[in-house]
Amino acid sequence: MNDIRIENATLTYLGDAQPIFSDLNVQFEAGTWTALLGPSGCGKSTLLRYIAGLLTEKVTFTAKTVVPSLTQLSNNVAYMAQQDLLMPWLTVVDNVCLATRLNGQRVEANTKAKAMALLEQVGLDSKANVLPNELSGGQKQRVALARTLMQDKSIVLMDEPFSALDAVTRHKLQNLAARLLCDKTVLLITHDPQEALRLGEQILVMNGKPAQLNKIAPPQSAIPRDIDGEFAAIQQSILEHLGGRS
Ligand code: ADP
Ligand code: MG
């Protein structure tokens, strides 16, 4: 998979006078993590869901350049949302195999074996045959992560995947996701500057209407980063870009 490059993109919801963003330029380097921050309602989910082909609402979209094409992008995206979106009536392992089922295919033994291997990687192989309501919030998100990996797509779109978790669980899942998704092009939407600093190899702050993107220089170290003194200064800069200066 190549880098994703979007130039001069403008998107307007049908019936709205003003675009959500206009003349937006952004690049996502293949095999790296981008953290996208921004105040609620600025258009983060709209941007990423549109390029992933997941936006069902009617919009007008124009751009000078979209590479790879929107069709290629949408064929290569796996999506992980804030809520785990597990099917309550399916066991954990069947939830991991959900994409196969949704494609109308039978879940064969080799598919199930792959799902079990992924559940082992997220530390939940012992829970394979229970229903989601027997799991904690963190465990559910680990199942969702296994399901995301099961799809084996080169682009992974994560919309606030850890935001509903307690701090310790969130920290562990950030580490796990960074390890398991290290070769993917990951687009992570987060409202948490610290999460952006732990995981972002590119950090973007979206703001305004129409929205603009500002780049924040991330720390130089490899992800997942430990929280250190350098974080404080960059975190302050992120908060200022988010409009926190009063
Ligand atoms: P974010 O993810 O940054 O919180 P969204 O992308 O969800 O923001 O929404 C961006 C803006 O688009 C918001 O102002 C929201 O009200 C508006 N919006 C979202 N969905 C629709 C829709 N179907 N029709 C019109 N406006 C929408
Ligand atoms: Mg959103």
TrEMBL record:
- Cite the GO molecular-function annotations of the record: ATP binding
**InterPro entries in UniProt:** AAA+_ATPase, ABC_transporter-like_ATP-bd, ABC_transporter-like_CS, ABC_transporter_ATP-bind, P-loop_NTPase
Q: Which Pfam families match?
A: ABC_tran
Would the keyword Hydrolase be found if you checked this record's keyword annotation? no
Entry keyword Manganese: no
Q: Which residues form the ABC transporter domain?
A: 4-233
> Which key words tag this protein in UniProt?
ATP-binding, Nucleotide-binding, Transport
The protein's superkingdom reads Bacteria
Record-stated family? Belongs to the ABC transporter superfamily.
Q: What name is this protein filed under?
A: ABC transporter ATP-binding protein
Q: What is the species listed in this Swiss-Prot or TrEMBL entry?
A: Vibrio barjaei
